[in-house]
Write a structure and sequence with these properties.
Two copies of one chain form a homodimer. Chain A has 176 residues and is α/β, with parallel strands linked by helices. Chain A contains five helices and seven strands, in the order H-E-E-E-E-E-E-H-H-E-H-H. In chain A, strands 2-5-6-1-7 form a five-stranded mixed beta sheet. In chain A, helix 1 crosses helix 3 and helix 2 packs antiparallel against helix 3. The longest helix of chain A is centred in the first third of the chain and has 32 residues. The structure holds cGAMP.
Chain lengths: 176, 176
């Protein structure tokens, strides 16, 4: 059950310490730029087909990279000053209003996608969809039990079949 | 089988693209500093007890942080210019000779360690040792089959029971 371990790794190796710092970085960003974010939660995208492109603009032109938040540096497992940062995106709705949000795909989905492409992994596309759902449910459960992370995130499950008919599916889902 | 997924994640989400770049970064480092490294391989530490401290100096005073290699930036899963970097350590042997090596602990071991501490994870210390071994064997197999990564790494399994009697166990193992 690959997804179970990936959800724990994503929480323990990332969300557990970046989520509590997010509010402070959003405040610093406001002090530096005067920009107010639509939400200081980390919006975490979970596409069911595990397709997580590097640039969201390729998926929906109403989601544009704006700027990175101030970075965080930590000594971890022998790597000194390892860098952690998030990207702010500018999202335009159907009325041309602008929203600034901190958004990113759940990176472990890249692992699930690539495993389904690597013949050594013996991992099919059906396994993959099942594992994305297991990742989502496990992560959701872990985060709900975590006092440090409560209310600091939003998990957004994206159905690619629904998205096929709607080019603005991503922007609509983020600002809901 | 948590370790199986963590090994794939560590390869697909990290080693597969950092290992091929290592030689180039070691060359850049030589151009900037004139320092020659004992090896341009990434030395990956795998302690059987999954204890991976932030600073190696705490484990063995003959392993001292020297400097970071030049960093690499990639757009990944919506995070723009995510930073990847490695640390160079200065290792002193029993004859006071100095070696420069690129070393770090295998980060997923932190996940295994913390899972065994988190009551929500239902993961015992026995599970943990078994999973570290499974991680090592899976990773070893994946890396041996990978043309891009061949000869660019060294996996170093560390037995904490052996280390207990020898304060210089870590430095000795790295420069073997
Ligand atoms: N030593 C080291 N230096 C790195 O820069 C690095 N980046 C990743 N990894 C390890 O490779 C594997 C794959 O990474 P992935 O990004 O898919 O998952 C990552 C990713 O989803 C998230 N995460 C960690 N660091 C960041 C980050 N800087 N930005 C965004 N997400 C991050 O949390 C997961 C677990 O991270 P780690 O537990 O640190 O170990 C990872 C993992 O075992 C690294 N290991």
């Amino acid at each position: 059950n690959v997804a179970h371990g990936l959800a724990w790794s994503y929480f323990l190796g990332y969300l557990k310490f970046v989520l509590p710092e997010l509010e402070e970085q959003v405040r610093k960003h406001y002090n530096q730029t005067g920009e107010i974010l639509h939400s200081s939660r980390l919006h975490i995208l979970l596409p069911l087909n595990a397709v997580a492109p590097a640039k969201m603009e390729e998926v929906d032109q109403n989601v544009l990279f704006h700027q990175n938040l101030p970075e965080m540096q930590l000594d971890r497992a022998g790597v000194r000053k390892r860098v952690y940062k998030h990207s702010i995106y500018r999202i335009i709705d159907h009325e041309q209003k602008t929203y600034f949000c901190v958004v990113e795909y759940a990176t472990p989905l890249l692992t699930l996608y690539q495993m389904s492409q690597d013949s050594t992994a013996a991992f099919s596309e059906q396994d993959r969809t099942q594992q994305v759902l297991l990742f989502y449910r496990t992560l959701n459960h872990i985060l709900e039990c975590s006092l440090e992370c409560r209310n600091r995130y939003r998990l957004i499950l994206l159905d690619d079949q629904q998205a096929d008919g709607e080019p603005q599916h991503l922007s609509t889902e983020i600002i809901k």
